[in-house]
Amino acid sequence: MLTQAPKGTLDMLPRDSHRWQGIEASVRRICALAGYREIRTPIFEHTELFQRGVGDTTDVVQKEMYTFTDKGDRSITLKPEGTAGAVRAFVENHMYADALPCKLFYVSCPCFRYEKPQSGRLRQFHQNGIEVFGAKDASVDAEVIQIAMEILRANGIDDLSLNINSIGCPTCRKVYLEKLRAWLAPKLPTLCEDCRKRFDRNPLRILDCKEDVAKLEGAPAMLDNLCEECADHFEKLKGYLAALGLAYNVDPRIVRGLDYYTKTVFEVITDTPNGPLTVCGGGRYDGLVEELGGPATPGIGFGMGVERMMMVQDLRGIAPAAPAPLDAFVVTMGDEARLAGVKLVRDLRKAGLKADLDHAARSMKAQFKFANKAGAPKVVVIAGDELARGVVKLRDMENSTEAEIPADEIVKQLSD
Predict the structure, then answer these.
(1) Residues 45, 89: one domain?
(2) Is 235 a member of any domain?
């Protein structure tokens, strides 16, 4: 039906917009304190960007992207995540020539993935995220994780657990993948179809399988096969996290779902009535800038879903109350009074007050009823008699009290 939203999408209604604004404000405030600047990238990109960046062996690229051919016969994809677009913008605009590290953040970035809609997982969703380019020390890994935790806690999601892992670099991962394939080979016929497809092209992703968890117990861990540089980086990360007072668990099964990750990967988990839920994930992608045509530049970032954060808020019963939509409503009777009301509403808005008046030609009784329903705490009444005497009536809707105020003092009265 045309009167129903497409499957896997949600409307952001006025009753929820303040919650989005609150989450966005917390991201902007926390990121600004750490020197991050906002970036916004197009809602769609050339498909090749995601094939090369995200990885053509991932579920995202193989199964979930919204891809179409435009009128210029170009393959275009609605972006499934925020990092690849940010890297493309970093390279295209030569931001690597500026002072590094380059610290960026984005809020409510629209993303699209074609997958079965379920709790906390939509086909159109929005991500808050940060990306840092040009910082190779593990101190920035710890900073990125700390910022993620602060944003979640600022929005009432505070029972968090942090899981970290290292998936090494291309050098040590090549050796590890040979060991992993040798271990997996005898078990391959018993694994799921997706795992069998991944065996040759991306066996690391097999460890992320949710169907064959028991069969994968005892698999060799990347952590035991790190090169000296990657092992040192991971140990430094743990030291920085300890210095920041952030407790963590080392989880060798975290590989994340995108091919661009290197070294540090992490997930932030919270408990829900339906079990543990990942509310933020991220990691390093030290080779991605170079893969997309830029100079060798380390990178790290995270993404967290806005709708998923709001879902957790609902489960906790901590959704912030909506602010009053109006500070004052102006009730008028008669054409002359209405002209005065229009001017008063203008002056109230100039003074920074949320004000409105009737636009539906209602009776005075209906106007009062509307003001009460709209939640206006104060009502200003302008009628013929008051207008002639240069006064207005100010009614306090909560206390049901009323007083006459000189018309030229009402703005100051309501502003104080």
Answers:
(1) yes
(2) no
Asked which of 283, 316, 349 is the last residue of a domain, the reply is 316
The mean pLDDT values, 10 residues at a time, for the chain of 416 residues are 85 92 97 98 95 74 88 96 96 97 97 84 94 98 98 95 95 89 87 83 79 80 93 98 98 80 95 91 95 96 96 89 92 94 97 96 95 95 89 93 94 93
Q: Could you tell me if 77 and 124 lie in one domain?
A: yes
* Buried-exposed string 186-204: b where 16+ CB fall within 10 A, e elsewhere: eeeeebeebbeebbeebbb
Nearest alpha carbon to residue 45 among 71, 60, 64, 66: 66
The reported pTM is: 0.90
Q: Are 333 and 309 found together in one domain?
A: no
2 domain residue, yes or no? no
201: number of CA atoms within 13 Å, CB side? Answer: 12
Residues contacting 110, CB < 8 A, separation 6+: 43, 79, 124, 125, 126
Instruction: Give the structural domain span for 154.
Output: 14-169+245-316
CA-derived radius of gyration, the chain: 28
Residue 183 is encoded by which pair of tokens?
A: 């271990």
